[in-house]
Write a structure and sequence with these properties.
Layout (H helix, E strand, L loop, with lengths): L2 H51 L5 E2 L2 E2 L1 E2 L1 E2 L4 E5 L8 E7 L2 E9 L5 E5 L12 E4 L2 E4 L5 E3 L20 E3 L2 E5 H6 L6
Parallel strand pairs: 3-6
Antiparallel strand pairs: 1-2, 4-5, 5-13, 6-7, 7-8, 9-10, 10-11, 12-13
Length: about 190
């Protein structure tokens, strides 16, 4: 074999090696692109699912917030017949501010009503959700037996903020002034 043929063969081997490297690089890029597309699709799906499952103040426990029934110039009401063992979330507009609260019948048979906020965690604007016989703060995670909700917070800390109410006939009656006094929690 002549020197010229050897050089030519060496050059051809270099070209073949570069071709293989280029093919390998293309395969790696194709694999990276495929993995990237799969990751982006997976992340997109996770975001959509988490947004769909996101509990917000309008769809906790699959119960839509309901507007309070106006009973009089000074009162709003909730029909007792509509209150069961699944918390229902209500809203009242106090001078343009949506004040939210919930009503639920406890295992003790009593109706428990409280603001969907507390004096400590209200700034997070997350409220509460029901889990069985427990109401749980969506900000700090603390849990409260439903039978203890609707009472004044004497110990301090996170607690479903007290909302005075009374039962009159077939309605739970709440004073508009009580709702308006706590509108600062929902600003």
């Amino acid at each position: 074999m002549s020197k010229r043929n050897k050089l030519r063969r060496i050059e051809l081997e270099k070209v073949e090696r570069r071709k293989k490297e280029l093919l390998n690089r293309k395969k790696r890029m194709k694999n990276i692109m495929t993995i990237s597309v799969i990751l982006i699709a997976s992340i997109s799906i996770l975001i959509v699912v988490s947004m769909a499952n996101n509990t917000n103040n309008y769809d906790k426990n699959n119960e839509l917030v309901q507007s309070s029934d106006i009973i009089s110039e000074t009162e709003v009401g909730i029909p007792v017949s509509g209150i069961g063992d699944n918390a229902r979330f209500y809203s009242y507009y106090a001078n343009g501010v949506e004040v939210k609260y919930f009503a639920v019948r406890g295992s003790d048979g009593d109706i428990h009503v409280a603001f969907d906020a507390c004096d400590v965690c209200y700034q997070a604007k997350k409220g509460y959700r029901q889990s069985g016989e427990i109401m749980q703060c969506l900000n700090c995670g603390k849990q409260y037996p439903i039978n203890s909700c609707g009472t004044e917070n004497t110990a301090g800390g996170c607690w479903p903020s007290y909302l005075p109410m009374r039962i009159k006939g077939e309605n739970v009656i709440i004073e508009k002034s009580d709702l308006e006094q706590k509108k600062w929690m929902f600003l």
